[in-house]
């Protein structure tokens, strides 16, 4: 896949910008905590970054209305400039600036991901899109293992301004990489309508309708949503697993997250070859099964089993996400890819935050193993969506 020039440039841009983003995500919470001494406000930084995901169907329309290659370049450059605003933050009175920048950050993340999905669908050959999406996941997870440590060290030594400057620089480098991508088409299908004839609401509904009306995409994205809901429940129980199950200090949760991240890195590397062998649906179903087993064995109070379960969670969880996003790129008309990908992102990732909040409440009142059991049940429902689809296809072929 890396022999394809466009795919290599895309991946390079993703790696660089992902490093800066991962460092900034951690540093923003620490920065707000340092300025305000408030845990609640520090936690609010994550909400600002996540909230725009809920508006993916609306934001994704923009990626289908403009030249996607130029949007990626200009969007990354714009975010580099926006981050420079943080260089003026000096006191608690200016913490609102941090939240404002993070909201813009979240919106740009949804928009640029939608543009990237559309551009990948038109410039990266179909036979290596699964490899690209898998390696993109590997790059993101790898950065999550390395960048937070770098961001924390940089913040401790030089403060939040240095992390903001680093992130701004990574956006500029990513823009340069995307500038070098060779685009033969404008990145969208020509429309028989003029811009004045089109409405934002109509385009938004069109993307949602296409995703819902396509059986294969609907089931893959639905399975992804249920799996991410199960992941939210599983994540909410992690500290209880460490404390009540293993009787270890809370810091041991960092070891579990590192093992899970390593599993995700491996899964991303193998995604392309496995998808070619198993199909998108088969790859997603296999990943869901591995994820479910991983969640289940974390209920046993044994360090080896819990570590193994964390690795299996890391291996299995990305599979359905990679499969769903690859299917969107391969099976959506060029002019709709941006908004359909953004809609799929909303459907897949929003349940994770909702389930995480619900899981946090449940852990406070019930045994953590009951929460993990609920996660396993939800995972089984996710697998059932894909198994049912396979049974329908088998029945149709036999008839």
Describe what you observe in this structure.
- This protein is mostly helical.
- It has 2 domains: 1-181, Growth Hormone, Chain: A (Up-down Bundle), CATH 1.20.1250; 200-399, Up-down Bundle (Growth Hormone, Chain: A), CATH 1.20.1250.20.
- It has 14 helices and no strands.
- Helix 2 packs parallel to helix 5 (95-123), helix 3 (56-65) packs antiparallel against helix 13 (337-363) and helix 4 (68-84) runs antiparallel to helix 7 (160-179).
- The longest helix has 46 residues, at 252-297.
Shape: globular
Total domains: 2
What is the straight-line distance between the termini? 39 Å
- Beta fraction: under 5%
At CATH level 3, the topology of the largest domain is Growth Hormone, Chain: A
Q: Mind describing the biggest β-sheet? A: none
CATH superfamily name of the largest domain? MFS general substrate transporter like domains
Mean pLDDT: 85
Helix-strand category: mainly alpha
CATH structural architecture of the largest domain: Up-down Bundle
What is the percent of helical residues? over 70%
Number of strands: 0
The top level CATH class name of the largest domain = Mainly Alpha
Please tally the helical runs, counting DSSP H or I stretches of 4 or more residues. Answer: 14
Work out the radius of gyration: 21 Å
Name the descriptors.
399 residues, 0% strand, mainly alpha, 2 domains, Growth Hormone, Chain: A, disordered C terminus
Explain the layout of strands and helices.
Elements: H1 5-36, H2 39-50, H3 56-65, H4 68-84, H5 95-123, H6 129-158, H7 160-179, H8 200-213, H9 215-236, H10 238-245, H11 252-297, H12 303-331, H13 337-363, H14 368-398
């Amino acid at each position: 896949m890396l022999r394809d020039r466009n795919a290599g440039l895309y991946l390079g841009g993703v790696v660089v910008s992902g490093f800066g983003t991962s460092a900034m995500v951690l540093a923003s919470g620490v920065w707000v905590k340092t300025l305000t001494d408030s845990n609640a406000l520090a936690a609010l930084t994550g909400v600002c970054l996540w909230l725009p995901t809920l508006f993916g169907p609306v934001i994704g329309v923009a990626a289908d209305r403009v030249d996607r290659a130029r949007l990626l370049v200009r969007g990354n450059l714009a975010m580099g400039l926006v981050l420079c605003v943080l260089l003026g933050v000096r006191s608690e009175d200016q913490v609102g600036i941090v939240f404002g920048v993070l909201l813009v950050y979240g919106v740009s993340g949804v928009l640029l991901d939608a543009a990237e999905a559309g551009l990948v669908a038109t410039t990266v050959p179909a036979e290596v899109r699964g490899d690209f999406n898998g390696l993109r996941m590997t790059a993101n997870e790898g950065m999550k293992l390395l960048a937070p440590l770098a961001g924390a060290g940089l913040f401790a030594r030089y403060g939040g301004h240095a992390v903001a400057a680093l992130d701004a620089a990574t956006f500029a480098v990513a823009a340069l990489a995307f500038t070098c991508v060779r685009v033969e088409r404008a990145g969208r299908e020509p429309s028989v309508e003029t811009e004045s004839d089109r409405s934002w609401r109509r385009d938004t509904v069109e993307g949602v309708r296409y995703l819902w009306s396509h059986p294969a995409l609907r089931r893959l994205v639905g399975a992804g949503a249920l799996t991410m809901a199960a992941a939210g429940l599983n994540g909410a129980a992690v500290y209880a697993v460490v404390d009540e199950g293993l009787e270890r200090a809370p810091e041991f949760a960092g070891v579990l997250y590192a093992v899970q991240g390593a599993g995700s890195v491996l899964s991303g590397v193998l995604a392309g070859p496995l998808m070619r062998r198993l199909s998108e649906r088969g790859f997603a179903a296999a990943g869901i099964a591995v994820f479910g087993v991983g969640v289940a064995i974390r209920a046993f109070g044994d360090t080896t089993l819990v570590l193994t379960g964390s690795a299996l969670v890391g291996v299995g969880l990305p599979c359905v996400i990679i499969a769903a996003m690859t299917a969107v790129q391969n099976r959506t008309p060029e002019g709709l890819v941006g908004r359909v990908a953004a809609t799929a992102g909303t459907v897949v990732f929003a349940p994770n935050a909702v389930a995480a909040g619900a899981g946090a409440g449940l852990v406070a009142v019930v045994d953590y193993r009951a929460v993990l059991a609920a996660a396993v049940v939800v995972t089984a429902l996710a697998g059932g969506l894909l198994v049912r689809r396979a049974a329908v296809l088998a029945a149709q072929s036999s008839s």
